[in-house]
Design goal:
The complex is a heterodimer of chains A (111) and B (111). Chain A is mostly beta strands and 111 residues long. Chain A contains no helices and 11 strands. The radius of gyration of chain A is 13 Å and the shape is globular. Helices cover 0% and strands 51% of the residues of chain B. The chains are: A mainly beta (111), B mainly beta (111). Chains A and B meet through strand 4, strand 5, strand 9 and strand 10 of A and strand 4, strand 5, strand 9 and strand 10 of B.
């Protein structure tokens, strides 16, 4: 059974204070690892897809990395508008096409 | 604009009542999904459909039903058999590279 565990559950940062979110996963055959951002009362918005260990992707203050067992979402010099819940999901290439999601990390960036 | 449209945004169900959540997409995607999200938790898969007139149960299908008569539409019915229906319901379609596009969600509450 595919599993995704995200940590920490919640994170409070001061504006400009860099940090990292963790996503540990167990999957038979990784087809892709996805990061989404979700604002309260809204649907998740796509951020990144990572396919193989060693891969990195960046978008503004966010950088996602991938190893064989986990992924990190690094947030550099965050701003209050980065406050959201960040969700990690995996797609198993050997079973169904549906994504398995973690429970998310709630990030709050204070000015 | 292309996207996923969910309606209504808020829905209230009386005991013993069936209610239907609407999901329409104009992205020309074959695969569509329904997820349930409870406070502080990740997304759990209810049903998915990879092609018209075909659908499969997800991890928590009991008390729910779906249909896929048209490519653009994937309605979800929450039946009276679902004893704990209060949650945020998200519909998604899947595009290239397995990326999911989400609607804005429906918040279902019990009166």
């Amino acid at each position: 059974e595919d599993q995704v565990t995200q940590s920490p559950e919640a994170l409070r940062l001061q504006e400009g204070e860099s940090s990292s979110l963790n996503c540990s996963y167990t999957v038979s055959g990784l087809r892709g690892l996805f990061w989404y951002r979700q604002d309260p009362g809204k649907g998740p918005e796509f951020l990144f897809t990572l396919y193989s260990a060693g891969e990195e992707k960046e978008k503004e203050r966010l950088k996602a990395t991938l190893t064989k067992k986990e992924s990190f979402l690094h947030i550099t010099a965050p701003k209050p508008e980065d406050s959201a819940t960040y969700l990690c999901a995996v797609q198993d290439g050997e079973t169904s096409r549906a994504l398995t999601f973690g429970s998310g990390t709630r990030l709050q960036v204070q000015p | 604009d292309g996207g996923i449209t969910q309606s209504p945004k808020y829905l209230f169900r009386k005991e013993g009542q069936n209610v239907t959540l609407s999901c329409e997409q104009n992205l020309n995607h074959d695969a569509m999904y329904w997820y349930r999200q409870d406070p502080g938790q990740g997304l759990r898969l209810i049903y998915y459909s990879q092609i018209v007139n075909d659908f499969q149960k997800g991890d928590i299908a009991e008390g729910y039903s779906v249909s896929r008569e048209k490519k653009e539409s994937f309605p979800l019915t929450v039946t009276s058999a679902q004893k704990n229906p209060t949650a945020f319901y998200l519909c998604a379609s899947q595009g290239v590279n397995e990326k999911l596009f989400f609607g804005s969600g429906t918040q279902l509450s019990v009166l």
